[in-house]
Amino acid sequence: MNINMTLIGQTIAFAVFVWFCIKYVWPPISNALHERQKKIADGLDAASRASRDLEVAQEKAEQTLRESKEQASQILEQANKRSAQIVEEAREEARAEGERLVASARSEIEQEVNRAKEDLRAQVSHLAIIGAERVLEASVDEQAHRKLLDELAAEL
Amino acid sequence: MAAGNEVSSTYYIQHHLQNLTFGKHPDNGWSLASSAEEAREMGFWAIHLDTMGWSIAMGVLFIWVFRKAGKMATTGVPSGLQNAVEMVVEFIENLVSATFHGRNPLIAPLALTLFVWILLMNTLKIIPVDYFPELFARLGVDYMKIVPTTDPNATLGMALGVFCLIIYYSLKVKGVGGFAKELSLTPFNHWALIPFNLVLEIIGLLVKPLGLGLRLFGNMFAGEVIFILIALLPFWAIWLLDVPWAIFHILVVTLQAFIFTTLSVVYLSAAHEHH
């Protein structure tokens, strides 16, 4: 337990070890530590950024989906409306066509009836003349009695 | 029998507390001391070979392990040795950043060296007290005290190193005038009290390394003595006391290394402060 040169020796050893530590030990470990720290911080940063991006993208996708759904429903509605319109139009047209057909048929019938009436009338007048001739035993001058016959026919 | 037992116990204790000393004996010249008296007679011009050898071995072990880890150090996922080394480095870095308020790239490596080196030297104490003295006795070496921190030369030597740095940085940061002013005008800022201040401050300054070295030495030496006393017990009782004491010493070993390191950093931080 004497104080002797060991004291100086230990101080020198201490100085040498500290110098060695400063020169060769501390820098690589400290650098690696700090670099890793930075890397981890960067990684965490990137992760949080990515999650934020994902959120934004999700929101965007959702919005797009919502918009397209809306659009689709709009288109569907339009199509429905249009088809109803078309059906309505077709129905209207058909109805009009039918009416037209009915009207034309009716007018044709009327014409036919008229013609038949005319015919009938002519025949009646003719028969009347024949009857009158039979009755009078003389021919009746058709020309002379045309007026009379016409009046008769009109009365029928 | 009782007296003989006492003598052999005393001899055993003294033998275990004697360093292997090489020095200049007034009669024998440069030689190994063969007894405590001879070692004492050598005076200052002697060196404790065991203290120097074991402390340098521990220092080299520290440098080798940490250098190896430093070479392997990558920014990827660390493992094994690198993990352990990085834990220590980070611990020291936190300690320094918490207590040292200047900017000096020397302080952190210094603290790391102090902490790990003292820790390794202290840890040698966990090795049973008889192993190495017995082994070296068989090899023909009389004395072998393997724990360098139980030698005041070692602890005071490191404290002396720290003290030199304190003086160096005090002068460098504050200048000679600033340092002299700090010594002479604190704590009482009055010209009439300059001598009083000087005595107070210089004692305070000198007590720093002395306290640093003696605290570590005292703790380790006391622990060593207790280990030796326990080793004198009957063989069946040794483990009963040795095991708890060794477990307790795991705490003391770490704590003393930590205290030495922290106080060194604190003293150096104070040396860097302007007033």
TrEMBL record, chain A:
Q: A cellular component term (GO) from this record?
A: endomembrane system
Q: What is this protein called?
A: ATP synthase subunit b
Is the keyword Transmembrane in the record?
Answer: yes
> What is the recorded membrane topology of this protein?
Single-pass membrane protein
Organism annotation: Vreelandella arcis
Keywords on record: ATP synthesis, Cell inner membrane, Cell membrane, CF(0), Coiled coil, Hydrogen ion transport, Ion transport, Membrane, Transmembrane, Transmembrane helix, Transport
Question: What coarse category fits the chief subcellular location reported for this protein?
Answer: membrane
The family database entries (Pfam families) matched by this protein are listed as: ATP-synt_B
Q: Give this protein's Gene Ontology molecular function annotations.
A: proton-transporting ATP synthase activity, rotational mechanism; proton-transporting ATPase activity, rotational mechanism
Which gene name belongs to this protein?
Answer: atpF
Oligomeric state and interaction partners are given as: F-type ATPases have 2 components, F(1) - the catalytic core - and F(0) - the membrane proton channel. F(1) has five subunits: alpha(3), beta(3), gamma(1), delta(1), epsilon(1). F(0) has three main subunits: a(1), b(2) and c(10-14). The alpha and beta chains form an alternating ring which encloses part of the gamma chain. F(1) is attached to F(0) by a central stalk formed by the gamma and epsilon chains, while a peripheral stalk is formed by the delta and b chains.
From TrEMBL, chain B:
Q: What does this protein do?
A: Key component of the proton channel; it plays a direct role in the translocation of protons across the membrane.
**Which family is annotated?**
Belongs to the ATPase A chain family.
Question: Where would you find the membrane-spanning parts of this chain?
Answer: 44-66, 106-132, 153-171, 191-207, 219-239, 245-270
Q: How does it sit in the membrane?
A: Multi-pass membrane protein
- In its UniProt entry, what is this protein called? ATP synthase subunit a
Q: Does the keyword NAD apply?
A: no
Record's keyword annotation contains Transmembrane: yes
Cite a GO CC annotation: plasma membrane
User: Per the UniProt entry, what are the Gene Ontology biological process annotations, in alphabetical order?
Assistant: proton motive force-driven plasma membrane ATP synthesis
Subcellular location per the Swiss-Prot or TrEMBL entry: Cell membrane; Membrane
- InterPro entries linked to this entry: ATP_syn_F0_a_bact/chloroplast, ATP_synth_F0_asu, ATP_synth_F0_asu_AS, F0_ATP_A_sf
HAMAP family on file: ATP_synth_a_bact (MF_01393)
| Species annotation | Vreelandella arcis
Instruction: Show the PROSITE patterns listed in the entry.
Output: ATPASE_A
GO molecular function terms noted in the UniProt entry = proton-transporting ATP synthase activity, rotational mechanism
Q: Which UniProt keywords apply?
A: ATP synthesis, Cell membrane, CF(0), Hydrogen ion transport, Ion transport, Membrane, Transmembrane, Transmembrane helix, Transport
